[in-house]
Amino acid sequence: MIHHEADANRYEDNRWTPLHIASANGNSDIVNILLRNSASIDHCNTNGFTPFLLACSYGNTNIADILIKEGAVVNKDDGTGNPALYLACNLRHNEIALALVENGAEVNSHDKKGRTSLYYTVLLRMENRTYFNFDGT
Question: What is the value of pTM for the model shown?
Answer without folding.
Answer: 0.81
